[in-house]
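Record type: monomer structure entry
Structure origin: computed from sequence
Chain ID: A
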Amino acid sequence: MKCASCGKSKAKRHCPALRASICPVCCGEKRGVEIKCPLDCIYFVEGQKHQQLKVMHQRLRKEGAVSYVRRAELYNRNPGVFARIEKIFADAFRANRKLRNDDVVSALELVKSTLDTEKKGLIYQHQSENSFANELSTRLLIALTEFKDSPDISEDRVTIDFALSVVDDFLKEAKFYMENDSNLQSYLVHILRYHPEEDVPSAGRQSELIITP
C-alpha cells in the first residue's frame, strides 16, 4: 500500500488525521505542519517529545540551564503573554509559508527597539526594510500593548520591563534556532506544531495551547 500523503513510499503507520496509512517520512516531516494531527496521536506526541528533548539538550550544552530557568520564571508570572506571542507566530506562518527564522528575529528586534524607545518616554515604532518583519512586529506590539494598557486587563497586566524581558527571551530562542539549524524555517515549524489549527472555530471552545519550554 502506498503512502496516502506522497503516493510513493510504502505506508507503514495509520494517520488518524488523514484516516489512511502513510509512510514514516511524511509522518515525521509533515506532522503538525501540513497534516492537522489530533493532539492524542501517539506519533504526534512522541515526535513533539523527541524534538523538544533534542533542542533542550542542544541549548543546555551551549548555554547551560540559565535560559530554561529564565523562561520558566517569566512564563509562570504570565503564561497568557507567551501563549499570545506563540499564537501570533503560528498564525503568521500558517498564512504565509515564506516566513523564515530571520524574519522572526528581525520582528522581535524591532519590537524590542520600540519598547526601549517607549521606556525612554518616546512613542515611535521602529521599522525596517523587511516587510514581513514590519507586519509581524506590528501584530506583536498590538498584543503587548493590550497586556500593558488595556483597562479590561487587571490581573494579567504587564509592565514595560516585563514585556521587554519576554521579547528578549523569545529573541534568544529564535536566534538559537537560526544559528544552530540549517532549516531556515525550523523555529516557525517548531512553534506551529505546538499550536494546531482549529478545524471548527467556536466561541465557546478554547484551543489547547502548549507553551514551549
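Annotation 1: Confidence is low (pLDDT under 50) at residues 199-213.
Annotation 2: Residues 98 and 211 are 24 Å apart (CA to CA).
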